[in-house]
Design brief:
single chain; alpha+beta; 5-stranded antiparallel beta sheet; 24 strands; 30% helix; 27% strand
Length: 603
């Protein structure tokens, strides 16, 4: 079991040469030139052939790092390939890669078979697919199962390990499942089935007490009920929740492996929070839905996968968020499941006035439960010293900013125990005292927050100054204000496009070739004029604000009085503060710092 999660003869080809001709694509594995994958661009057939000079000499070629799959748009199928990758690091000696660049190749050589309107719609569909591919970050490994935790991989059977990598992957986290459907129909192509996850991966080689170890953080984003911040909330009829992420912390040292797992996900109720141009729309619990049924389905799956559950609810216990907290607590009590414990912590109230040290109240309260849950630890010889039999499932409203802060604190407490058990930390030592590693730890968790937030909300995370530095700062507050402003714009005016893109990529919406001819194309729907005008008004208003901020040499004073006022006005000139007397009228007066002028009164 020392090679836990590693595939051998079932490795996926991730280094290929792509040859393109007018009627075919040829994909030649670099490690085995005895075969070639042939995709007929006309008949759309995919076949594996013996390599006996199958590739024409006139074919153009380019290296690719793997196949993400095929997606059908109005003009026909498109082959999606990875053209550039970067190595993140290694887990169990196996390389983990991040997708850096992709390319979408059309089977069809022209668009002449489309009407002019269809061609425009096809262009929009292409941009939707590209926007998903451009969203940070996608990851893969040709030899290691990145979709499963170490503990799940250990608990598998020998038969499981003989299955192709894609087939045995945790389908909750395989983002190219829909794109791979044409390949999956042919078992002989299994070495081209490359499972790709979406989320965050960081692998760091670190040294504490002259002992070198590998520390890894993996966040696997679920493709079930995936979407954007306001368009995808709560759960669906199958019990899948929005913004569900499994985060695993792995330590490798001298052949031993240790793992601690946490999860996050939207409040498991039927609720909505659709954008309505308000800064923060009020969440609404949907009353005509069977919350208990959806809640039960979600936690049946959670308990099956992870064991006992502690639900850390960080939403406000009053105000607009209070309805969620109250209903959530009531459903947990009504269910009476002994494997579920609910812990509410009003993050904003408890940590008001920058009192973020009060988070220790929550961590101390959870300490005994965390010790009871434990973590997975496998020795060098394959013996398992302990397992994790429960998880903390943390949520706020977005499951981003507050959630990541708490998860990083729980992760540090577990890592402290793991490193002591491995003999890396001595008794009495703490991670916080290891300055170099503490810096790495904080910044990796902050990067995790930023990436998960970009994927769901469209901007970097809030509150990451605490995660990075251990305290809140004025600069951090300013950065949060800027990100909040960007979120407002994206959530109200851009996330409809992003949601459509995700649905198209994951196969929740499938394009039919007769759209725009015998079937209505959803892209033909005209937008209300308000949706076109409001963004323009907002941008103009922001531009005016910036103009005012960028011209400090002019002070504009507006008065509401309908009669002339004598007003003593203090003006800070280049030589200090000077007093002048100027007369202001209804439409205002201007005092220039570089040249003080008296503004004449208006009779």
């Amino acid at each position: 079991m020392s090679n836990i999660g590693v595939s051998t003869e079932l490795d996926v080809y991730d280094d290929l040469l792509l040859y393109i001709t007018t009627d075919k694509f040829f994909l030649e594995p670099q490690i085995s030139r005895s075969e070639v994958l042939v995709i007929d661009r006309v008949s759309r057939e995919i076949s594996l052939q013996v390599h006996k000079d199958q590739i024409p000499l006139h074919a153009t070629s380019k290296p690719v790092c793997g196949i993400m799959g095929v997606i059908n748009l109005l003009s026909g199928p498109y082959l999606v390939v990875i053209t550039k990758k970067s190595k993140v690091g290694e887990i169990n000696g196996q390389s983990i890669w991040r997708v850096e660049e992709t390319e979408i190749l059309s089977y069809s050589r022209t668009l002449l078979h489309l009407t002019e309107e269809q061609a425009q719609h096809n262009k929009v569909y292409l941009s939707l697919v590209q926007s998903v591919l451009n969203t940070a970050y996608f990851y893969f490994s040709a030899t290691y199962d990145v979709t499963h935790t170490l503990q799940r991989l250990y608990n598998t059977s020998p038969e499981f390990l003989q299955m192709p990598l894609f087939e045995r992957a945790d389908q909750r986290f395989v983002w190219n499942n829909h794109l791979m459907r044409d390949f999956l129909a042919q078992p002989e192509l299994h070495r081209y089935w490359l499972p790709v996850i979406h989320g965050f991966v960081a692998i760091k080689t670190s040294i504490i007490n002259q002992k070198t170890f590998s520390w890894c953080l993996i966040s696997r984003r679920s493709c079930l009920r995936a979407g954007t911040r306001y368009f995808m909330r709560g759960l669906d009829s199958e019990g899948h929740v929005a913004n569900y992420i499994e985060t695993e912390q792995i330590v490798e040292f001298q052949g031993s492996k240790s793992s601690f797992v946490q999860t996050r996900g939207s409040v498991p109720l039927y609720w909505t929070q659709m954008p309505n141009l308000k800064r923060k729309p009020s969440p609404q619990v949907i009353n005509n839905q069977n919350h208990i049924d959806g809640f039960s389905k979600h936690f049946d799956d959670q308990i099956f996968n992870y064991g006992r559950q502690v639900l850390i609810d960080l939403v406000d216990q009053s105000g607009a968020e209070g309805c969620l907290a109250k209903t959530f607590a009531e459903i947990v009590r009504f269910g009476g499941n002994p494997n579920i414990r609910y812990e509410a912590f009003d993050f904003h109230h408890e940590c008001r006035k920058m009192r973020w040290d009060r988070l220790s109240i929550l961590i101390d309260k959870l300490a005994a439960l965390q010790d009871d849950f434990g973590y997975f630890h496998m020795l060098k010889d394959g013996t398992v010293a302990c397992v994790q039999d429960g998880v903390f499932r943390t949520n706020c409203v977005d499951c981003l900013d507050r959630t990541n802060v708490v998860q990083s604190l729980l992760g540090r407490r577990s890592l402290d125990q793991q490193l002591k058990r491995l003999g890396i930390l001595r008794d009495g030592q703490r991670i916080e005292d290891q300055v170099s590693f503490e810096f790495v730890y904080r910044n990796v968790w902050a990067d995790n927050a930023d990436v998960c937030s970009i994927q769901y909300a469209g901007t970097s995370a809030l509150k990451t100054d605490f995660t990075r530095n251990g305290k809140r700062s004025g600069i951090g507050l300013l950065k949060d204000g800027w990100n909040t402003l960007i979120r407002y714009y994206k959530n109200n005016f851009a996330d409809g496009f992003r949601q459509d893109a995700i649905d198209l990529f994951l196969g929740n919406y499938v394009v039919e070739e007769n759209e725009g001819v015998s079937k209505l194309c959803p892209l033909m729907e005209k937008k209300d004029w308000k949706f076109l005008t409001l963004p323009v008004i907002l941008l103009v208003a922001l531009a005016m604000c910036f103009i005012c901020l960028l011209i400090p040499a002019v002070s504009v004073c507006f008065f509401s009085s309908h009669h002339r006022n004598d007003h003593v006005h203090d003006v800070l000139g280049w030589n200090g503060c000077r007093h002048i007397k100027c007369h202001h009228v209804l439409w205002g007066g201007i005092c220039r710092l570089s040249k003080i002028t008296r503004i004449p009164t208006k009779d």
